[in-house]
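Tutorial, part two.
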Amino acid sequence: MKIVTLLGSPRANSISSAIARWFMETATSLGAETTEYTLNNLAYRGCQGCYACKTKLDRCVLNDDLAEVLAAVSEADLVLLATPVYYGEVTSQLKGFIDRTFSYLTPDYRTSPQPSRLSPKKLVFVLTQGHPDEAMFGDIFPRYETFLKWMGFGETRLIRACGVGPNSVDTAPEHTLRLAEETARQLMA
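Running the prediction step on this input gives:
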């Protein structure tokens, strides 16, 4: 199984990255081939709304560092997106990638029963937040899950840690790491 992980935190040793890496270590031990991209280390632009991916090409027209990432995601069996919550939303680094996934949709995506150019994939979404209340920001994953399912991500899982971050607990909670390991084992089976 090919797994591509996109780390959306601008912090190199963030809790969301630690959880994602724990998942990847488990998956690697079970035979997965894993690739990791730290989005903050890449130079790329957001979607330009040019529609070249619908009129001229079957991919995004932009030739920046995200082109390799989009190609890797296209070839993956499972994609892991990891992000902390910033101002009630995913980080701008991850949002830039998500916007560029528009290129995965076919020209007739609005009416097609097969709107995505992607083969079906599994998705794991790691979400961390400083606020301890799980009701806060509980809308983030369902909102993105709707779009990502449209893109071809069929089986989706959420791994979430609340009340963690540089101003509170700065390590991944043990129960969240166990959930990451358990999720990797289930999806690798």
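The helical segments are 15-29, 52-55, 66-75, 92-100, 140-151, 174-188. In part three we will examine how such features are distributed along the chain.
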